[in-house]
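## tool: complex_structure
## caller: assistant
## args:
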Amino acid sequence: MRLILRLYPSAWRRRYGEELSDLLDEMPSTPATTLDLLRGAATLHMRALLDRVAPRLLAAGGPPMPTHPLQRHPTAWALVAVLLAAPTAIFVTLSVLAYQLELPGMQAWLEPFMDGLQQAPRIVDFFLLAAPFLAFLLAVLPLIGLRLERVDGELQITFALRARTLNVIVLALCVVVGGFLASHLLAEFLLERP
Amino acid sequence: MPDRSASSDPGLLLLISLSGGPKHGHAMLLDVASFAGVRLGPGTLYGALTRLEEDGLVEPLPLDGRRRPYRLTDAGLTALRGRLTGLNAAVSIGLARVGNR
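## result:
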């Protein structure tokens, strides 16, 4: 049963561990005692967790609580979004130049790359398709603010949007690139239907 | 049907036990078993004791050998009196109603 004492919170053990250990020496070791000790350890851990979390949730007039870490570094996440969406953006731009605007020599220059892409694993296709949507999320989440606070005794959730130039530019890029790719795939799907 | 009402509030049982004088953990278990017929487990005992001490209702005394006794504080005595008075009112009303049937 002494091993079970190790499951108790360390701060609690420093204060009460020796007393409880002495008490166990005076008691018979039974399954009921073991279960009671386990339940006691779980209760104390739960209580310690609540003691840590509850004041943060319910603090009146405390600082606003950001609900996700993306809010703290919006520019960094916008740059990550740019890197994520860049391959798709380049692919879409070259495709438009070659096949929509039909720039001279562009198709011949791009042909080896497109052949290679067709033979590439499906995961490459999936990445090119999914990247703008993931990048969109990375750029937009830092612009969304949620605050949890207690006002006049009531818990209030405040929703806010903020504008950051770089993030908005990246969002626009993602919408254009993703929208073009999605519409292109949809058109292909419809045209290939019998 | 087993009586679970008393065992559902080990804190109250410990306050009642300590109202009879300071006791260490094992003595509290024996005392509670004698007056309430409830066998508290060691985890339950120290969980309740922790909360009572945090709330300032009981306080530890210097070690007596390897054992540490606890005693009721003034706040603990006031809290216990309030709880028992409330229970007593409920018990009186309940007994009167049962007696009238």
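## assistant note: Residues 69-192 of chain A form one domain. The helical segments of chain A are 2-5, 10-25, 31-58, 74-100, 106-119, 122-140, 165-192. Handing back to user.
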